[in-house]
Design a protein that fits this description.
By secondary structure, this protein is mainly α. The protein has two helices and two strands, in the order H-H-E-E. A hairpin with an 8-residue loop joins strand 1 and strand 2. It is elongated.
Length: 86
């Protein structure tokens, strides 16, 4: 029974971590858009983490320990973990 439960648990945990990461990426992208509108930025302007903090409740962290690249306005933010994409 354990031999069946463990792989299922690991798969479920991996899926949940990916979904949480994608949610963080959406929040980062929304914060970039608001920052850009409020500061008069255009496509290609790159926000720093400090620029986005007023628009985020906390620094987003990937639950799988990936690293976020916020990317310039007009590009989707990314995570270093494969499959964690918008």
């Amino acid at each position: 029974l354990v031999a069946l439960a463990v792989p299922h648990f690991l798969r479920t945990r991996t899926t949940a971590q990916a979904q949480a990461c994608i949610s963080n990426l959406r929040q980062i992208d929304a914060a970039k858009q608001v920052w850009g509108l409020e500061k008069g930025k255009t496509a290609g302007d790159m926000p720093t983490e400090a620029d986005l903090m007023p628009y985020l409740k906390a620094v987003p962290l990937c639950p799988s320990l990936g690293v976020y690249d916020y990317k310039p306005i007009g590009e989707n933010p990314t995570c270093t973990i494969s499959g964690h994409t918008l």
